[in-house]
Amino acid sequence: MEKQNQFNWKVFMALWGASIFGTLAVLPYALTLQASTLEKITTAVPLSVIIMAQVIQSVVLFGIATSLGLLLAKRIGLGAPLLERFFAGQKVADHIKPFLLPVILFGAVGGLIIIGLDKFVFMPALAAELAQDGGSQTTPWQGFLASFYGGISEEVLLRLFLMSLLAWLGKFISHTADGKPTTGVLWIANILAAILFGLGHLPATAAIMTITPLVVVRALVLNGFLGIGFGYFYSKYGLESAMLSHFSADIILHVVFSI
Fold it and tell me: Of 61, 57, 39, 60, which is closest to residue 49 (Cα–Cα)?
């Protein structure tokens, strides 16, 4: 392990690079979802230039989110412990075993629950919106690539950065004897991050259907409970466990069922 007051540049570069990879990997999936919308847009700027600008923006955003996230996480006892151990030359296998099966099962089962709720609860109520707006169907390979964005990039933004920020702010209200946020603060930060995680899916949903109050509820319900699970794993086992669980859920959602 590196010294407590030393910024771990190796972990930063690994997470930043992985987040950039996730940003690039999601492009085929995102462009397919937005195909009908893009066809209606006329602009003097080529689409390739717009995409490049968005990628550059994401590179900067993830650089900031990763660095601040690591700094904040260290101050509240969170972070990416497996990467820290790996770059310190320590064995990580024994630290993976306690959470490997639970996080994969939670992601996979959670993905199946989302499929069931969407098919039998929300889709019948949103039939009119779907018939009106339509949408392009993604392929399993696009969904597989997109899963890296969810599993890596979104977890860096929402757990490492946002949840850590909220928990760090919360510790000034309630903290333990050693200055760490209390369990209650961590749960509040987790729930708030999960709510934003759900709302964060609305831009992608807008490419498929009109945003209505029911669509907002759908995003919060279907993504919120998974987000809370990811946040719990982050606080208990570290960022890597949340990433693996999120990736497992996205494999079910975007590869097995291609939604």
Answer: 57
Instruction: Answer positive or negative: Cα dihedral of 162, 165, 171, 173.
Output: negative
pTM of the model: 0.92
d(CA 161, CA 159): 6
- Supply the DSSP string of 81-142, one letter for each residue: HHHHHHHTT---HHHHHHHHHHHHHHHHHHHHHHHHHIIIIIHHHTHHHHHHH--PPP-HHH
167-213 pLDDT, tens per residue?
999 999 999 999 999 999 999 999 999 999 888 878 877 766 788 89
Measure the CA–CA gap between 41 and 189, rounded to whole angstroms: 39
d(Cα 222, Cα 250) in Å, to the nearest integer? 12
| Cα–Cα nearest to 259, from 152, 105, 118 | 118
